[in-house]
Design a protein that fits this description.
mainly alpha; two-stranded antiparallel sheet; 39 helices; 735 residues; two-stranded parallel sheet; 65% helix; Arc Repressor Mutant, subunit A
Length: 735
């Protein structure tokens, strides 16, 4: 107490170790005394966030809290720290250290100790490999430290809890209770939070989501594997799978059931998923599980036989698809009563929905389905006409042929199709006519009126997928009339709604947004989208056709013409296999553009074929939407037209689009500009708004030196000022 009379700095460490109420009361009294003194600086240190028992003092005296993140090093500080150890790792190793450690001082110290042991190698590749190996060993060192000096010191009940929840990436209270079989899991979570920074907490949909810190997660998983019996671990995975299944997270549920070899759980989920249409059922995402099912298991289920036929069709394996169709047909002949009716329902569903069959006999099939529904002999699963695309004519199937008789079919089949499709049929006739008229260059007012009416019907008890079609038509109409910003606003408003009501639409909404970026010449935005775009080199997924075609356009804008042609080859094969007329024409147009830009012979013939096919259906907008990219080819006069009026409309609209959006698909060459590290750094600082004077001070250069680098950068980028240089550098991916 003598020291209290003098004032000064007082430190109370290891607050998290105070477990009994008596200990906490004593500490609370001491803290209150010290907080009431003006001549005292009090420092409280804990491995955990502010404990609940200090909340009242925290509110009264307003503590300044410094979280652990404040003590982490920045990437630049990491570099300085390594230099103090006289370490200069390769760029790849430095990036790996940052990716794994994120500036955690303890990890940096462990890494430095490991790197210091390495001999210097003359071969750069060998040096890099040795450094990366040392970094990986350092990560394991951190896990070992965490296990030995942190986790082993915990209460046994806490250890068991953390080991159990470590098998999942995230968990909520309900999952924690299911995994640990403890009703008071909430109490344990609170106590663990007050004991150390083992858990991160998030809020999602008004509930708390927890995640183990990475070192804790991996050390606990190792502990689980080494110290617990296999039967217990399998039970954990089963419980996790059950929890995920109840929550509707089928991917994680299947993963957990696979890890514990629970075939019944896997089969149950797959059958339930097969009851959905391909647009809402995760057929492609779960194909690994479907394809691993034994034939005997599939033959036991109507849903699985029908689902396998649909999946194989989506995988472009039409022979396999038809084989499973025949198995289902044979099953239907042998059954009676409800089982026979269920099989017949699925056969009719496949007759209408199988992608590889196109729309052959579709009119008769729709009439037949309508008759069955009227007589209440069958009830069909949901159909999606759009496959989550902003189109019905080119959505789940290609209905170009129907556009030839659009008004006639709307009168004769409209009610039947709407009835067969249920909620997906709300607004369908109006939207189908709007899209057909739009594609054929029809009257703007009639198109917008039909699209607006169809949208209102879809919003009144229909499906968001149909609303997306309306938005797609109306935004395209706005773009065609040079109202791009209106189109952007309309799509953004719809995106906000879809985020809550139809999240499966978001990837294609984003794709349509990127298409608008291309019209504005914002290549940097489009380039960044490539990170989330589907990877065609890994596996061609037919449901991603809309985004693949966007990817082709981004490749063309970036000057990556060879990549564009390779992807177009795959899309051409898909279009031929699946009878996709519209996509086939798009592929021909974009192939002609790519070949023209590469100086390859044969582009004229390909363009001629595209125009002939489009003219056959009187499709105008499939050509004019490509604007300046296609206008350059059409101006050469190599195309032969059958209908002078059609030619006049296409040429006039295409020229207008080229005038409205001159930057659309304007080629930005990659890799043809090299800027030194110093020039790039100066440009980055300029982008942050720093003046020449401040940049010179920061980089140790004269102002004249900075201006010299600027002039050279402007020359290389073919621009005249700082703003243009920053924009062009971003477009080229340099910043």
């Amino acid at each position: 107490m003598h020291s209290l009379k003098r004032g000064g700095i007082f430190v109370i460490d290891d607050l998290y170790l105070l477990e009994t109420q008596e200990e906490r009361n004593v500490c609370e009294c001491l803290i209150e005394k010290l907080c009431s003194r003006r001549d005292v600086w009090l420092v409280l240190i804990s491995r955990a966030p502010l404990p609940g028992w200090l909340t009242s003092l925290y509110i009264r005296y307003i503590f300044i809290t410094i979280g652990e993140e404040s003590l982490f090093l920045t990437e630049k500080e990491q570099e300085c720290y390594l230099e103090k150890w006289e370490l200069f790792p390769t760029k790849v190793a430095c990036k790996r250290i940052w990716d794994l450690g994120g500036g955690i001082p303890l990890f940096l110290r462990i890494v430095s100790m490991r790197l210091k042991e390495l001999p210097e190698l003359e071969n750069l590749e060998e040096q890099e490999e040795a450094e990366l190996e040392a970094v990986e060993k350092s990560r394991k060192d951190l896990w070992n430290y965490c296990e030995s000096y942190v986790c082993d010191q915990l209460d046994v009940e806490f250890q068991e809890f953390l080991a159990a929840v470590s098998i999942v990436e995230q968990f909520d209270l309900s999952m924690a209770q299911q995994l640990t079989k403890k009703k008071d899991a909430g109490r344990l979570i609170r106590q663990i939070q007050e004991t150390g920074n083992f858990l991160q907490e998030y809020r999602k949909n008004d509930r708390s989501i927890y995640e183990l810190r990475l070192p804790v997660k991996y050390s606990m998983r190792r502990r689980l594997s080494a110290r617990y019996p296999q039967d217990y671990i399998k039970e954990l995975y089963y419980s996790a799978g059950n929890s995920y299944e109840l929550d509707g997270n089928v991917k994680e549920a299947l993963r957990m059931y696979e890890l514990c070899h629970n075939k019944e759980g896997i089969s149950r989920i797959l059958i339930d998923n097969m009851r959905k249409n391909p647009a809402s059922g995760e057929y492609m995402e779960l194909k690994h599980y479907y394809l691993m099912l034994p034939k005997e298991k599939i033959l036991e289920s109507v849903e699985l036989m029908a689902g396998m036929s649909m999946l194989q069709s989506m995988l472009l394996n039409e022979e396999e698809s038809e084989r499973w169709y025949r198995e289902l047909a044979a099953y239907a002949k042998e059954q009676t009563g409800g089982m026979k009716r269920a099989a017949q329902e699925r056969l009719l569903y496949l007759d209408i929905g199988l992608p590889h069959r196109g729309i052959v006999r579709m009119t008769d099939l729709m009439k037949r389905a309508g008759l069955f529904l009227t007589d209440r002999k069958v009830s069909l699963p949901e159909f999606s006409v759009t496959s989550n695309l902003p189109s019905m004519m080119n959505g789940g199937k290609d209905f170009c042929e129907w556009s030839r008789r659009d008004r006639e079919l709307a009168k004769s089949l409209g009610k039947i199709v709407s009835s067969v499709l249920g909620k997906y049929g709300k607004g369908l006739v109006d939207l189908a006519l709007a899209e057909s008229f739009f594609e054929k260059g029809g009257d703007d007012y009639e198109v917008s009126s039909l699209a607006g009416r169809g949208r209102m019907k879809a919003e009144s008890g229909g499906k968001m997928e149909q609303v997306f079609v309306a938005v797609g038509i109306l935004t395209q109409l706005s773009i065609l009339n040079n109202h791009l910003e209106e189109a952007v606003d309309m799509l953004e408003n719809f995106r906000q709604t879809a985020e809550q009501e139809a999240p499966r639409l978001l990837p294609n909404i984003r794709a349509l947004s990127v298409r608008m970026d291309l019209y504005r010449g914002r290549i940097g935005e489009a380039r960044r989208w490539l990170v989330e775009a589907p990877k065609e080199d890994a596996e061609f997924i037919t449901l991603e056709r809309y985004r693949y075609l966007l990817k082709v356009r981004v490749y063309l804008a970036m000057g990556r013409k060879e990549k564009a042609l390779l992807l177009l080859d795959k899309l051409r094969f898909y279009a031929e296999k699946m009878h996709r007329i519209y996509i086939g024409i798009e592929v021909l147009i974009l192939s002609a553009v790519a070949m023209y830009r590469m100086g390859k012979d044969g582009w004229q013939e390909i363009l001629q074929e595209a125009v002939e096919r489009a003219e056959d259906y009187h499709f105008v907008r499939i050509l004019t939407r490509e604007g300046t990219a296609l206008w350059e080819l059409l101006k050469t006069g190599t195309v032969t037209w059958k209908d002078p009026e059609y030619k006049k409309q296409v040429m006039a609209e295409c020229e207008c689009m080229a005038d409205f959006y001159p930057a659309y698909l304007k080629e930005k060459q990659e890799g043809n500009v090299f800027l030194t590290d110093k020039a790039l750094k100066i440009l980055r600082l300029q982008a942050e708004g720093l003046s020449v004077e401040k940049i010179a001070d920061q980089m140790g250069l004269s102002q004249a030196g900075v201006k010299y680098y600027n002039r050279e950068t402007y020359k290389k980028l073919s621009v005249k000022n700082k703003t243009a240089a920053v924009l062009e550098a971003r477009n080229r991916g340099l910043l």
